[in-house]
Write a structure and sequence with these properties.
single chain; mainly alpha; 0% strand; globular; membrane; transmembrane helix; cell membrane; Gluconate transporter; transmembrane
Length: 438
């Protein structure tokens, strides 16, 4: 009866989002109330459970997401992203242009949210396509594969960051493991898979070919790379130094403070304002207005995460999470594979990688605790599952289709398959890594 109640609640969530076209936030709240009623939570306790779930998850993520969005916006509008792209292209030349696009997508994808990175990078893809007379999908897919992997695997992106907090994982270790898994996933789903897509006819729309900033308007190469990669540097440095010094050491406490994700994002945001704003003689009122717009752009993501927190708390308050964990622990499936599978099923049904990752995370949490599964690897397994087979119910599918002017069939052959390859390679990598580190 418990599993049936959960299934009905998830069906309500899927129908509200897909069939009724209701925003995921109210859909999550309605599904949470349905789950609470079906699972026997007293009426008087339902509002408190929902409010607690929203508050608990946002208390840790609100700073991270808002400062991350503003930081990414500065990287984009200052021309730092364009400088990084140009530098990589000049280093490798036309013969290895795919690999350059992949590396640029990975570097840009670390600080930028997926939607921002997509819109920013697509004009660069099209400019290369027109300049060298190359197939658009063949050139563009490696870069977009890199953007997708950073979105699903790496903090400080919303879903992996939320999963780190939910699973009580270590942000720095998750980032290191994420890099290890991301590299083969991007290579296989990007340059290697794209070799089979050269004959897909694509006529990118001229509307999406944007003008570049002039050379004298761009920041320097070192400044651009260092600022974009600073959050990664601080998180990885903190993960190392916290183990290098005893807990009572002032240096340990200092690096623990500096390495807290919310502190890292605050530091890099204000550094970016200085390095890409003040030093570049940008008008601060214009730059800050871009930052304000960035917060508006991620408001929907924040609401989706808040809604998922409500559903998670309902599962916790009713005790159903422990019951799910006890049931699934008897199945002959490794916990990492199970987390991946749950996220993949929800992703295919709903379309949103963020919703899929957070919903699966709420259901798999007790199993992590009962089986002793590495929470850092579970973040990556669930994140990989949340990218599985993007299709017509995913906004990313339509972004790719419309920007590249493809048919639905060719979009499935290229985009949907690329996302699926990333997902499967991520799972295999997490399983292999669990053997190595244990």
């Amino acid at each position: 009866m418990t599993l049936l109640s959960i299934a009905l609640s998830l069906i309500v969530l899927i129908l509200l989002i897909n069939a009724c076209k209701i925003h995921p936030f109210p859909a999550f709240l309605v599904a949470s109330v349905c789950a609470a009623l079906l699972l026997g939570l007293p009426l008087a306790k339902i509002p408190g459970a929902i409010e607690k779930g929203i508050g608990d998850i946002l208390s840790s993520l609100l700073i991270l997401i808002t400062f991350g969005a503003m930081f990414g916006k500065i990287i984009a509008v200052s021309g730092a992203a364009q400088r990084i792209a140009q530098t990589m292209m000049n280093l490798v030349g036309e013969r290895k242009i795919q690999w350059a696009m992949m590396v640029v997508g990975f570097i840009i994808g670390i600080p930028l949210f997926y939607g921002v990175g997509f819109v920013l990078m697509v004009p660069l893809i099209f400019s290369v396509v027109y300049k060298y007379k190359l197939p658009a999908v063949y050139i563009g897919l490696p870069m977009l594969a890199a953007l997708s992997v950073t979105h699903g695997f790496l903090p400080p992106h919303p879903s992996p960051s939320a999963l780190v907090i939910l699973f009580h994982a270590n942000m720095g270790l998750t980032l290191i493991y994420g890099f290890i898994l991301a590299i083969p996933a991007i290579i296989i789903a990007g340059p290697l898979f794209a070799q089979f897509l050269k004959k897909i006819p694509a006529q990118p729309l001229d509307t999406f070919v944007a003008d570049d900033l002039s050379e004298d308007e761009l920041p320097g190469t070192f400044n651009s790379f260092f600022t974009a990669l600073l959050p990664v540097i601080l998180l990885m440095l903190s993960a190392y130094t916290q183990h290098a010094f005893p807990p009572s050491s002032p240096l340990h406490q200092l690096f623990t403070f500096i390495g807290a994700p919310s502190v890292v994002l605050m530091i890099v945001f204000f550094y970016a304002l200085f390095s890409l704003g003040v030093l570049q003689r940008q008008k601060m009122d214009i730059l800050l207005s871009h930052c304000t717009q960035a917060i508006k752009d991620v408001a929907t993501i924040i609401l989706i995460i808040a809604g998922s927190g409500a559903l998670s708390q309902v599962f916790t308050s009713t005790g159903v999470s422990k019951e799910i964990a006890a049931y699934f622990s008897t199945l002959p499936i490794p916990p990492l594979a199970l987390g991946w599978l749950m996220a993949a099923i929800i992703r295919i049904c709903i379309g949103s990688a963020t919703v899929a990752g957070l919903t699966a995370g709420a259901m798999i949490l007790p199993l992590i605790q009962s089986t002793g599964t590495d929470p850092n690897l579970m973040v990556l397994a669930v994140g990989a599952g949340s990218l599985a087979f993007s299709h017509v119910n995913d906004s990313g599918f339509w972004l790719f289709k419309e920007y590249f002017n493809l048919s639905i069939g060719d979009t499935i052959r290229s985009w949907s398959m690329m996302e699926s390859i990333v997902s499967v390679v991520g799972l295999i990598g997490a399983l292999l890594l669990s053997i190595v580190i244990h």
